[in-house]
Amino acid sequence: MKHLLDSSFSGTLKVPGDKSITHRALMFGALAKGTTHIHLPLHSEDTRRTMECMRALGAEIEENAEEWVVTSKGHSSLHAPDETLYTGNSGTTTRLITGLIAGLGLRAEIEGDASIAKRPMDRIQRPLAEMGADIALKDEKYPPITIKPAALSPITYTMPIASAQVKSAILLASLFTDGDTVIHEPSPSRNHTEIMLRQFGADIASENGTITLAGGNELNASDVTVPGDISSAAFPIVLAVLKPGSSITIDNVSLNETRSGILDVLEMMGADVTVEQTSQEGEALGRIHAAYTPELKGFEISGDIIPRLIDEIPILALLAAYSNEACTVRGAHELRFKETDRIRAVIDELSRFGIRFTEYDDGFTVHPGQVDVMENTPVKGYNDHRIIMMLIVFSIISNTPLEIDDISAIDISYPGFMEDLEALRKDA
Ligand SMILES: O=C(O)C1=C[C@@H](OP(=O)(O)O)[C@@H](O)[C@H](O)C1
Ligand SMILES: C=C(OP(=O)(O)O)C(=O)O
């Protein structure tokens, strides 16, 4: 990694496929009758967990480098798994398949790794139980999750938090119920489930924060082309903005409105970032140019923008540390329930280098000031892919090697991250 430190970065990059969309394509492919081709899926640890779970339920999945092919005889052909389903580090897999399995009326036990064992599942258990599901949790809150067969009915549910995982678990459970399920969202969360369900033939409508799904339609297989993941693109974008002499282009990346909050923040900061939209059908798609910007303004964000950039907050905290003005994130209490408590992790690691924070229960302020980086300072990645990639970008922009305890969790969402940075290295 040392040679990345003294370099600037240029050229064009295609980041790996969108993680949220790949998970959903595998699940809807398994539920739908026929053959679903998933073009440019994300090959990563998290999406592999969803793939293995769908196989355990009876879907056939063929893997090629650029395409996965899911073949299923439809939702009624899926069966209870023979063994405990293992969801690894993936909150999306854990929560969405709980809704899917409850909706199919199957028996299953679901567990994940040490991080998943600490992530709250009562947020999905509550609405699913209201629908009639029989779901038991450890200490009424955590995995392992035990699902017993039960018949479900539609519900009207007002979500207490903006969460695409909760919304999607309910939608998956409601697919084969008799009647309309209605969900009210407090703020718009990522809408990939709604877009893809419509594509697969479900009767679903979404308007002003209310999603209505009429249950009972068989899903039909449909092909999915997965756009690049803007949550992965965020790391090279911030690297280019902070590293003198850099100018990069990310091609073929998702510009879905419910995911593009980071672009709004970059604009507020006056970063040299431009966006070209190339397609608006279904999932919006385009190209992002990002270049070194010597002076960055501050920002204050809260409310509706937060779910639109929730996974980008660790890398935004780094960007904020190099701004000339204070930067504040509020309304992001959800960060405390991710792979690790991302508010604590960001503050604990970056404050080792003189970066000054005020911590709130639901966010932080980063104060402007000098960043002092000492060579080979030990830092912790908490086995959290987004914290680890933020620390790698920090090391590169500060031209200082850091001792990160373990970087293997990068493979959760962005295998090939280091190779992609290497390919953008100017004198490579
Ligand atoms: O539905 C999804 O694919 C995701 C939803 C978000 O979680 P929440 O639903 O908990 O906000 C996000 O943080 C996660 O990385 C992926
Ligand atoms: C929070 C994340 O994923 P998940 O909830 O699926 O573990 C993430 O990818 O940042």
UniProtKB/TrEMBL annotation:
InterPro entries, alphabetized: Enolpyruvate_Tfrase_dom (IPR001986), Enolpyruvate_Tfrase_sf (IPR036968), EPSP_synthase (IPR006264), EPSP_synthase_CS (IPR023193), RNA3'P_cycl/enolpyr_Trfase_a/b (IPR013792)
Domain Enolpyruvate transferase: 9-421
CDD domains: EPSP_synthase
Pathway(s) this gene product operates in, as recorded in its UniProt entry: Metabolic intermediate biosynthesis; chorismate biosynthesis; chorismate from D-erythrose 4-phosphate and phosphoenolpyruvate: step 6/7
Top-level taxon of origin: Bacteria
Cited PANTHER family: AROM/DEHYDROQUINATE SYNTHASE, PENTAFUNCTIONAL AROM POLYPEPTIDE
Recorded catalytic activity of this chain's protein: 3-phosphoshikimate + phosphoenolpyruvate = 5-O-(1-carboxyvinyl)-3-phosphoshikimate + phosphate
Pfam families linked: EPSP_synthase
Subunit details: Monomer.
Residues annotated as catalytic: D311 (proton acceptor)
Subcellular location: Cytoplasm
Name of encoding gene: aroA
Recorded family membership: Belongs to the EPSP synthase family.
Residues annotated for phosphoenolpyruvate binding in this entry: K19, G91, R119, Q165, R342, R386
Lineage, highest ranks first: Bacteria, Bacillati, Bacillota, Bacilli, Bacillales
Gene3D superfamilies assigned to the protein according to its UniProt record, in alphabetical order: Enolpyruvate transferase domain
Annotated GO biological process: amino acid biosynthetic process; aromatic amino acid family biosynthetic process; chorismate biosynthetic process
Major site of localization recorded for this protein: cytoplasm
Keywords attached to this entry: Amino-acid biosynthesis, Aromatic amino acid biosynthesis, Cytoplasm, Transferase
The name this protein goes by in its record: 3-phosphoshikimate 1-carboxyvinyltransferase
GO cellular component assignments: cytoplasm
GO molecular function: 3-phosphoshikimate 1-carboxyvinyltransferase activity
Function: Catalyzes the transfer of the enolpyruvyl moiety of phosphoenolpyruvate (PEP) to the 5-hydroxyl of shikimate-3-phosphate (S3P) to produce enolpyruvyl shikimate-3-phosphate and inorganic phosphate.
Positions contributing to 3-phosphoshikimate binding: K19, S20, R24, S163, Q165, D311, K338
E.C. numbers: 2.5.1.19
